[in-house]
Automatic annotation (TrEMBL):
Domain of life of the organism encoding this protein: Bacteria
Alphabetized SUPFAM superfamilies for the sequence: GST C-terminal domain-like, Thioredoxin-like
Annotated source species: Fuscovulum ytuae
Full protein name: Glutathione S-transferase
Record domain GST N-terminal: where: 3-84
PROSITE patterns in the cross-refs: GST_NTER (PS50404)
Pfam families: GST_N_2
Amino acid sequence: MTYDLVIGDRAYSSWSLRGWLFFDAFGIPVNLHRARLYTNELPNLLKSFHPARTAPTMRTPEGAVVPETIAIAEELASRHPEAGLWPADPKARAIARALAAEMHAGFTALRSYCPMNLRVSYTDCAPPPEVLADLARLDVIWTWARSEIGGATPWLCGAYSVADAMFAPVATRIATYNLPVTPAAMDYVMAHLAHPSFRRWRAMGMVDGPDQEFYRRDYLRRDWPGPKPLPARAVEGTQAENSLCPYSGKPVTHALELDGRRFGFCNAFCRDKTVADPEAWPAFMTLYQA
């Protein structure tokens, strides 16, 4: 048996991103159940996860439903101490928990004015004073954590932890809306954009459904500031160097082209998430570099 996790649209559901990172970034297997936001899909799906009302919601192998992100993190940490969801050092762990709790409850102006959208990046969004105040507070607590813990990693409390996963959607908002932050804060944002688990989530978010009109803004656009994907493209037919999908091991039905070479996958989603960011997928890169 394993865990089940309900998520919303990957491009837009910031809380779903956090919940998923608790699994993927720490190597804990999970079965995903995705529902599109602003439709009946999510409430209908959650009928089998009573009494949950939101994504993400976790169900444990024993059947316990855990609908709150902080609760999901704590439950996984208690069940999988070897995974390192929280820092082992007591001081670092205390600071990480304080940071995660403030993120869970705060920064409402930033979250409201700049909803998460992983599919675009803008040159400017004219943030109002309330958003600028939230950004200033982020700089204060991020600087505080690093000064208290030290360390040579780009993360807040030593190794990547729940605290960093909690701030991942804020990092994407800074990237999407080109929000004004200090150089140190931008370095932290760029570390998130380059994190392997985040790159996989965003690659899937680019292709797992049509755009949600609620998140559309008319600001001038720019390129996504994270790592630039390799120039892959979807192609017709099944001709490919490999006969089996690098992810599922099933026969090839769809293909992409990269550097004049063709690679096959078992369905359109496997292909398209790889087109979105080939380097996000170790199994594909092993095939590509062979």
